[in-house]
């Protein structure tokens, strides 16, 4: 089953394409750390590619399990690709009970307009209401005060936060809990928006990996571009960069690394929208088809400062937060992504069913108090930086880590017992290879068991095994 991908940013990009964000407003957005999300634009999400990745996600480790080992999205990816700040205060707040009238007053004060009562659904606001307000006043006059500039900036930032970075499965509503966090313009940039974005994506990956789920949300552009950066058999070929002069003024600051994927693609060497092909590509992926370190030191140094300012904590092993969401960042399981030697990781004592807990039925909850047992890890994060020797060479098949990894995971998602001739359409090769390897292993084991003086009956049994195996090919 291919997952439905939920997001509510389509009208946002239509709006900024028709009415580019005013320079004064953009300065505020840049100051608060969300400029990279706007500057990167959005890729078209491939639902089949996303589904093939979710199939390999393990909620208990927050990693994808590939044939080459574990890999995951880290704070490094968030900051390098989108420039979101990762070092700062956790994105937590107090779940106060508010009436529609309360939210109308907050919207008027912070966003500059009062939505109608029917534009609310509990503690969420219709995207269409915010979009209509933005279309009524798309530009600022030269006489606009700083308060008006801040209100306009909050409109864009609220939409980016609630509709992209922490998007939920509603698809048409924005959670209002983030809005009061934008009131103090001096505090907005002090939050770790990057870790909150990653926590939400982890949460939706955990939920969507369950067999009864049919949709996924979160910052899916981050997930897809992460895969394009690292898995060569999944990425399209970039033909040319798109003309962005009608979207972004020429004098804008340089964008983050994800901007290179706002381009025109060729699909001659890869596919799109075909789950069976993506699944087979990951099932048969070899070591040279996964790039452990796509961001060289030279590339990182060439990026704007806001894409590397938090590099001191890229390797932190600690919980990350976004209101009710608390997930665990475990770089010690993917040390090769940082150019370090991978050891057998130690488990983090964390409830593997954590993703079943959410905000529903939890009014008047102070999430800082609720997560009190986990907050000290983040507050003292510099004490939990993972360290390891530099990785000098690729791991070999007999490396202790890979031996351990093969023992505790499933390498093939496709059904390795199904003969290829029985399938319609595209025939995956990886399942055939896996079946062949298993047959050969069983024959070798049988041959070893025969000893030095096999009987004629043993020969007949062995011949029957060989014929049976050959029939599938």
TrEMBL record:
UniProt cross-references to Pfam families, sorted A to Z: PMD
Native source species: Solanum stoloniferum
Domain Aminotransferase-like plant mobile: 33-406
Protein name, entry field: Aminotransferase-like plant mobile domain-containing protein
